[in-house]
Each structure stands twice: as C-alpha cells, then as structure tokens.
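Late entry, uridine-diphosphate-N-acetylglucosamine complex.
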Amino acid sequence: MGTTAIILAAGKGTRMRSALPKVLHKVAHMPLLEHVYHTARTIPDCKVGIIYGHGGELVRNELTHLEADWIEQREQLGTGHAVQQASPVFSDEDTVLILYGDVPLTLPSTLTDLVNSSKKTGFSLLTVDLENPAGYGRIVRNSNQLIDKIVEEKDATDTIKEICEVNTGMMAVSGKLLNKWLGKLNNNNAQGEYYLTDIVEMAVADGVEIMAIQPENEYEVMGVNNRKQLAELERYYQLKHAEELMAAGVTLRDPARVDVRGDLEVGQDIIIDINVVFEGNVSLNNNVKIGPNTVIKNSEIGENVEILANCVIEDAVIGNGTKIGPFARIRPETQLGENVHVGNFVEIKKSIVAEGSKINHLSYIGDTDIGKQVNIGAGTITCNYDGANKFRTVIGDNVFIGSDSQLVAPVEIEDGATIAAGTTVTKNAPAEQLTISRAKQVVITGWKRPTKK
Ligand code: UD1
Ligand code: CA
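Prediction complete; structure with ligand written out below:
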C-alpha cells in the first residue's frame, strides 16, 4: 500500500574519471546517492531499494547506515533491466517511484506531487523543458497533448530531436502495472538496451493516461556525469542555502563564500564573514559573530560569541559571550564556559574551561579541567601524554599560571595557586601558594664573549 522508491545507481560514471563510484561523490559533504535516499524517505511510508552495479560493493559498504534493500544488477543492460531486478522488493499494491542515484537535489515536494498524481491513473512522469535537450529522451505528445511515448536521442528523427520537453527519468507507477509492463520489455533499439521508457507506449496501449509533473527548477532534475556538473550542483546548493540563512535573519558578508555541509541552526542577528565552512550539526545562537576563514564542525556556539579570523572548532560547546581567535584551534570534547577568552595560537583538546578564564597566547591545553577566572600565561603547555598514556590536569578557580610553564599530568593546581613563569610543575601545587621550579638567577661578573681567532 505504501511507496517503494527504486534508486538506480548501477551506472559506471566513466566521465568522472575517478576510482570512486560516481554516486559516492559528494554534494554538501554527502554522497549523491544519500541525498536521493533522504529525499525519498520524506515520503510517508516509503521503503527504498537501491540498484547497484557489479563491483559496487564499495557503494554498499560506504552506505551501510541507509535502511534499504540492496539489489545487484550484474550487467548494466539498461534502465528497464535495472528496474526488472528490483521487482522482488515491491508488490502490486505499492506505488513504485523510480529515482536516479546521481540526481541529488530533487525537492521533497516534487516527489510528493509525482507520487500523488500517479494515484489518479497509475502512472506519472516528471518532465522538464530544456533549452538544450540534447542527450535526453524526448516526450512525444499526441494531438490532445497527452503523452504518447518517449524516444531516446539515439533513436530519434530530426523532427523529434527538436522537442524540448524531456524525460527526467523520474516516474511513479502502480506496482501492478509496472510488473506487467516490465515483463514485456525488449532491447530492439539503437543501443540494444532494455529501456524503461518503453513502458510509456505500453501504458498508452492499455489506455492508461500518463500524468506529467514539472519540477520547480532545473537543478532538481540535473544529474552528475562529470566534475563540472558536480561543482555546479554544489554551488547551486550552497547559494540556495545561503539565501535561506539570510531569509532567517543572518548577515552573510558574501553569500557565495559560505558553505554549509550538514545542518546549521541559527538564531537572530548573526554575522558571518567570508570563507566560513560549517560541517555536520552546528548551532549558532543569537548575535554570534564569525570572522573570515573559519571552519566549525559539530559544535554549539552560545549567544554573543565572537570568533575571530582563521579558527577551527570541532565537536565543542562554546558558552555565551566567549571570544575565540584569531588562529585558535578548539578540538573535540572541549567545553568553554561563559565569557572565556581564547587567543591566538591556542590549541585546546578534550578540556573543560569554566567561566571567565583566559588562555590568550600560544598554549596547548589537553585533557584538562580549568576552574573559573583562571589566567593561563603565554606559552603554557599541559604535558598530557607520556608517550603511551594520557593523563588529566586539574586546575582550580582563580589560579594564575605564569608564562612558559609546563604542567606535567597527572597533576593538580589547587584554587588560588600561583605558578611562577617558567615552572615545570610535576607535583600538586597547593592552594593560595606560589609554586616555582626555576634555577636561581646568577650573574657571572667579568665574563667576556669569545672573539674570532
Ligand atoms: C535515461 C532515460 C532518458 C532520460 C535520461 C535522463 C531510458 C532508456 N532513458 O537515459 O529518457 O532523458 O535518463 O537522464 O531510461 N542505470 C542503471 N543500470 C542500467 C542503466 C542505467 O542503474 O543498466 C542508472 C544509471 O546509473 C543512471 C540512470 O540509471 O543513474 C540513468 O542511466 P543513463 O545511462 O544515464 O540513462 P540515459 O541514457 O541518460
Ligand atoms: Ca544520463
């Protein structure tokens, strides 16, 4: 009773000139095939079958997380042959939706329209008018403007080649009718292939009217055959996303220079400078400002946070009012509290920094808990790794760490402790005391610099 989407993905994709199967190439950081899968799954009660080619094990292994039936088509004998392989995964009661694994940007609403309109007669087709229809199957209509047949470019006469309405390949057909027609396909044509499109003439012979649906825009039906088309779809996707962000109240210094490769949630009055890349799930709260050349991946950025130029932030939670950068790297499992300052050339990994603390210059903080209102001096390093194991450093509230100190973990710096500049801390530093490990400064009087002989 539901819908079964059959995604054709067995083609070789020779023109990509790639060792990677075509449908694994990515738009917005997601394989083409996975885009098609997710769009199909927006249709209520829709299962998915994927036709993959011989040697397409790579595709299967890469996409094991998709909930789909995988159907192997050992030899690519045509789109009709591909769908024939899928007949075990749909029933007569299903609506079968045919999709292509290399056409990633179809809108969910277009597929919904296609499925719904097929319910009227049992067959609907997604067609589009193209200025340059070369290469596509042409839609031939009768004197009543009803669809009569599809003629492939290689089988077309010059008159038919002038038709600009083309077959996108996407269609929705009643399972019962499809099963009947699939059994009658032959390969008597210019390419010696089993054409799925031949079912159009069979439908007409059976008195089934073919409904036609058009997409909102051409990009929805554009496939990827080469790297140029891959880049075109990427740019289209990104520009559309940028427009959505601006419509939601985000200022983009240049909508052509922001890339969203995943899901980005935004609050109000956010300002994003040029060349910023978002990956995975990122949320930006109200009034966040992001400087140029920054990458943010799977992170939550609090209100009023300011990220200056050239930062990389990954798997982190950043508290309200915090300032980061320029040139800072926040690595996975880091949590920065409210009003924290992280300055240039600071790397923080798997650490918790409580509110009001500052790490402003040239530091490495790894596997560390830092309390409130702590000042970490320039060049401070947590030595968290002994070559085999990692250990934690614990720093209390109101601690002051002098510049160029090394904290050799596991070690604790208690509340209010001061560590003198240049200290190598190997034992716990007690609360409120000054800890220093520095050779006493001496002056050698009368010493002379050597001179050249
Ligand atoms: C097909 C249509 C054509 C339409 C065009 C739109 C047929 C006969 N022709 O032509 O009317 O205008 O798409 O792009 O259907 N595939 C398989 N197994 C196969 C053959 C193809 O999985 O044996 C897959 C391909 O990977 C691809 C899709 O089906 O994703 C379309 O195949 P392709 O060879 O590109 O079809 P066209 O000849 O372009
Ligand atoms: Ca094609």
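The mean pLDDT is 97. Will revisit in the morning.
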